[in-house]
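Sequence only, no structure available. Ideas?
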Amino acid sequence: MRLYVDCPCTSFPRSFARDFKETYCYPPPSTVYGMLLSLIGEADMNQHRGVKLAIGIIGADPPISRILRKQRDHNSSKSHLGTYPTSKFSKPNHHELLTDLQLVVELDSEDARTRKLVNRLDTALSTPSKISRFGGLSLGESWALVNGVRPYRETDGTIRWLVKDNRGLISLPIWIDRHTTRGIFQRFRFSPDFQSDCWVTIPE
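Reply:
I predicted one. Tokens follow.
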């Protein structure tokens, strides 16, 4: 299964980003996995771990914009028992945004674990009335709504595939453990051709 995803505006905050919300230039596999779960209405993030997916970017790199945004400062409000009056605990921070992001997500239909997810995605796209989901479909943070998801067409454009390469210049998180905050990272490079090293496995 090869899906086309259009996201007009999003952000993938880097793991080390604090006040200045720098963004990864490309969607991390863990983020794409989360979007797919949201698309089929699956609330358990562990339900399809172990799946294999590949990510490609259509067209040129998405432009990065830097904006000034008001954000809540939770650290300074710990002594206030969880109350965050906006007037006291908000401060301006710079935030990077990606615009006009178009990507392709390939799922390994031959892998038994991935096939279950593929079947559910096929149902969500062909007969959405058969699934139950809530909220908007986002890629990244909740405000980064996806414009559309559908099967990829050759006319959508040329794909640049992210290929695993330990000497590559693109570093993305594969998975972040929410309990330990430790992550699994992988380096990538671009290739015009799809190859076996494009597959990324979401850790079980």
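The two ends are 21 Å apart (CA to CA).
Hope that gets you unstuck.
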